[in-house]
Write a structure and sequence with these properties.
Layout: H1 6-11, H2 45-49, E1 77-79, E2 86-91, E3 98-103, E4 108-112, E5 118-121, E6 129-134, E7 140-145, E8 149-154, E9 159-165, E10 169-174, E11 180-185, E12 189-194, E13 200-204, E14 210-215, E15 221-226, E16 231-235, E17 241-245, E18 255-260, E19 266-271, E20 275-280, E21 286-291, H3 295-298, H4 301-306, E22 309-314, E23 320-325, E24 329-334, E25 339-345, E26 350-355, E27 361-366, E28 371-375, E29 380-385, E30 392-397, E31 403-408, E32 413-417
Antiparallel strand pairs: 1-32, 2-3, 3-4, 4-5, 6-7, 7-8, 8-9, 10-11, 11-12, 12-13, 14-15, 15-16, 16-17, 18-19, 19-20, 20-21, 22-23, 23-24, 24-25, 26-27, 27-28, 28-29, 30-31, 31-32
């Protein structure tokens, strides 16, 4: 099926030939300025800029740790209202005072970081909640379950304001500047909705799951990775694919993660084929392929096949990229030199990594239940935080990198206050 074509996308149009969704352009206005077509979208820049001014209260709590499951608990707050593994977490970007978590118990909660108190439950899901996140201005929170039921709640009124059901959900994220949701499903489609109106557009990929996706910083394009190893860069306004990477340019296995640098000029893709590819977002050309020739290459074929790229990301302040592997390797690559700069080894697989917003520090969480902070310049371990009795499945870092919030297979979410000496 041709990307963006076919009967499915035609059927979803409305109001004749009008554009279904408008997306804000961050650059200078031009004749095709998308901002001219945005309606009723407010950008509260002052609120976003002032988010770091919000004080965060720490409160010593030791709830949820029972029977010596974990001898050491470095966390300040434990949220224990989930009754099964907690799969996802997101922090509200405006104030960084609220978290939303979703779990295997078919539940999602919005709760306060300061004391772990529940603000409200995002009720009504009937399958594991695997995706949850706040809109750019913290007005809305969206929750999505594996079966494809997506719900949006207004945070201040705690009321559900929109819901939609798609095929099996793979991922979901909010637009960086507008009340727009993007999601990928197992049938290969990416879906986009304007919230709360619900105007919808689909982007039809290959007939295999759209396994990962990310809206680029300009808000006009998105990169989506698929199970067949292909990567597409989509024009969100026009609904067509600008670039398709397949064959040698794509991956030899399912995509696991995608990321872009701060200005959106570079995209990085990761796969179960253990390769991370650096792509020029404007041309769709592969700039470089980062291959991990480490333990996996030297071990048996069976062990090598079990390794994969699990997470990746770009540093904002230096030309560095980090790639986390299932075999526990954290690789720091120098983008300008296109070479491996540091290799930081974990004893167990890396689940996710995040860069600090304004420094060359990488956070990793892994299957051993520990959060670690690494200096990407030296490759040295800065600190580690313990408290979970099972693997960490997701985590988030607040804007000023003073708080880490984790979710785990031990049914808990935890808030860690990150010490910042000399940083």
């Amino acid at each position: 099926m041709e990307p963006g074509g076919g009967e499915g996308s035609e059927a979803l149009s409305f109001h004749g030939d009008e554009e279904i969704i408008e997306v804000v352009e961050l650059g200078p206005p031009g004749p095709d300025d998308l901002a001219d077509e945005i309606e009723d979208v407010d950008f509260d820049e002052e609120a976003v800029e002032g988010a770091d001014d919000q004080a965060w209260e720490t409160e010593e709590e030791d709830e949820g740790v029972e029977g010596g499951m974990e001898a050491q608990d470095d966390s300040e707050v434990t949220f224990s209202e989930h009754s099964a593994s907690v799969f996802c977490v997101s922090l509200d970007p405006k104030t960084n005072t609220l978290a939303v978590t979703g779990g295997e118990d078919d539940k999602a909660f919005v709760w306060q970081l300061s004391d772990g108190e529940r603000l409200f439950e995002c009720s009504g899901h009937k399958d594991s909640v695997t995706c949850a996140g706040f809109s750019h201005d913290s007005t809305f929170v969206a929750t999505g379950d594996m079966s494809g039921l997506i719900k949006v709640w207004r945070v201040d009124t705690k009321e559900e304001i929109w819901s939609f059901e798609v095929g099996d959900l793979e991922w979901m994220e909010w637009h960086p500047q507008a009340h727009v949701l993007l999601a990928g499903t197992a049938d290969g489609n990416a879906w986009m909705w304007k919230i709360p109106g619900g105007e919808c557009k689909t982007f039809q990929g290959p007939s295999c799951p759209a396994t990962c996706g990310r809206i680029l910083p300009d808000g006009k394009r998105a990169v989506v990775g698929y199970e067949d190893g292909t990567v597409r860069i989509w024009d969100l306004k026009q609904g067509n694919s600008l670039h398709v990477l397949k064959g040698q340019d794509g991956h030899q296995g399912p995509l696991t993660c995608v990321a872009s640098n701060k200005d959106g000029s570079l995209v990085m893709t990761g796969s179960v084929d253990c390769h991370a590819k650096l792509v020029n977002a404007a041309t769709g050309k592969v700039v470089y392929v980062f291959k991990m020739e480490s333990a996996a290459a030297k071990s048996s074929a069976e062990e090598a096949e079990s390794n994969s790229v699990e997470s990746l990301g770009f540093c904002n302040v230096m030309p560095l990229a980090a790639v986390g592997y299932l075999d526990g390797t954290l690789a720091i690559y120098d983008i300008s030199m296109q070479s491996l700069r540091q290799k930081c080894q974990h004893e167990s697989g890396i689940v996710q990594l995040l860069w600090e917003e304004s420094s060359a520090v990488v956070y990793t969480c892994s299957l051993d239940g520990v959060v670690r902070l690494w200096d990407a310049r030296s490759g040295k371990l800065i600190s580690e935080y313990r408290g979970h009795s099972a693997e960490i499945l997701d985590f988030a870092v607040n804007k000023d990198a003073s708080i880490v919030v984790t979710t785990s297979g031990d049914h808990q979410a935890k808030v860690f206050c990150v010490q910042r000496p000399d940083r």
